Automatic annotation (TrEMBL):
<dbReference type="GO" id="GO:0003677">
    <property type="term" value="F:DNA binding"/>
</dbReference>
<feature type="domain" description="HTH cro/C1-type">
    <location>
        <begin position="9"/>
        <end position="38"/>
    </location>
</feature>
<dbReference type="InterPro" id="IPR010982">
    <property type="entry name" value="Lambda_DNA-bd_dom_sf"/>
</dbReference>
<protein>
    <submittedName>
        <fullName>Helix-turn-helix domain-containing protein</fullName>
    </submittedName>
</protein>
<dbReference type="InterPro" id="IPR001387">
    <property type="entry name" value="Cro/C1-type_HTH"/>
</dbReference>
<dbReference type="Pfam" id="PF01381">
    <property type="entry name" value="HTH_3"/>
</dbReference>
Length: 75
């Protein structure tokens, strides 16, 4: 599963988390989250895995892209 910047922002919105909150919970820097969400750089595979796992552990379901694009749900 790949995480898109839009999914990351949407997931944070569903959880009512700031960039700082996601970064702290995932063990990455806020600038990593900020720059990813602003399309400034792609994530390293390991960092992407940390973010995905953190979001999923909090109840986020990441939906793969279909004809409408990728999506996000909360359990």
């Amino acid at each position: 599963m790949q995480l898109s910047p839009e999914q990351c922002r949407a997931a944070r919105g569903l959880l009512d988390w700031t960039q700082e909150s996601l970064a702290a919970r995932a063990g990455v820097s806020r600038s990593t989250v900020r720059d990813f969400e602003r399309h400034r750089h792609a994530l390293h595979r390991g960092t992407e895995s940390l973010l995905i796992r953190t979001l999923q552990d909090a109840g986020i379901i990441l939906l793969p892209a279909d004809e409408h694009g990728p999506g996000v749900r909360i359990r």
